[in-house]
């Protein structure tokens, strides 16, 4: 039975012009607009800083048991320039799923970066190659070369599900997976959000607490009591 041991060679990729617009979009703003949908756990962090923001279609590799080499190489072969390689290792910190040489090869292949739900190694080499990588941490052991895995399937990754072709946006603050079908709406939502932020700047510069009258009214309606006296 091939379930758990499959390679899908084709994915749908959003137009590059659409994806490039996400390079100007910070992940916290995406998280706000998407109501925390598609937000990867903060445990997956940049392995070096400063690190550039990346945005690209997800090429997913499921590495359920830590064996990585063959399936990783097949996943690499499925990438195109601008893609983000997504290595779903279920948070396994016993083995490194990515290292310096592989990262150098991916960089020269034109891959935008990699995110790893697990460990990597050779952090200084990866930084020297200027290949953006986000991972849970570092481990020096390499995993088994042979074993099952899948390429370009939906994967559980950092408390969310990433589908092949999702637009991965990763920067120094976090990682978000944006479904391409909703990309335009998300970008418009970010534009509206930033406009709202701009409108409240004068209040912030005066040291005012925004929306405080409505907040107090809501609290009082919920039964909160404001006592104009000292405690005791």
CATH topology: Glucose Oxidase, domain 1
Report the helical percentage.
25-40%
> Number of domains in the coordinates?
1
CATH superfamily placement: Ribonuclease E inhibitor RraA/RraA-like
What radius of gyration results from the CA coordinates?
21 Å
Arithmetic mean pLDDT: 95
CATH class assignment? Alpha Beta
- Could you tell me how far the N terminus lies from the C terminus, measured between alpha carbons in angstroms? 71 Å
Overview of the structural elements:
The chain is an alpha/beta fold and 232 residues long. The protein has a single domain, classed as Glucose Oxidase, domain 1, CATH 3.50.30.40. It contains 8 helices and 11 strands. Strand 5, helix 5 and strand 6 form a beta-alpha-beta unit. The chain is elongated and about 70 Å long. The mean pLDDT is 95.
Key terms for this structure?
232 residues, alpha/beta, Glucose Oxidase, domain 1, 9-stranded mixed beta sheet, 11 strands, 26% strand, elongated
Question: Helix and strand layout, with pairings?
Answer:
Elements: E1 5-7, H1 16-21, H2 27-33, E2 45-46, E3 54-62, H3 69-77, E4 84-96, H4 100-109, E5 113-120, H5 123-128, E6 133-138, E7 149-151, E8 155-157, E9 160-162, E10 167-171, E11 174-178, H6 183-199, H7 201-205, H8 212-221
Parallel strand pairs: 1-7, 3-4, 4-5, 5-6
Antiparallel strand pairs: 2-6, 3-7, 3-10, 8-9, 10-11
In short:
The chain is α/β, with parallel strands linked by helices and 232 residues long. The protein has a single domain, classed as Glucose Oxidase, domain 1 (3-Layer(bba) Sandwich), CATH 3.50.30. The chain has helices at 16-21, 27-33, 69-77, 100-109, 123-128, 183-199, 201-205, 212-221, and strands at 5-7, 45-46, 54-62, 84-96, 113-120, 133-138, 149-151, 155-157, 160-162, 167-171, 174-178.
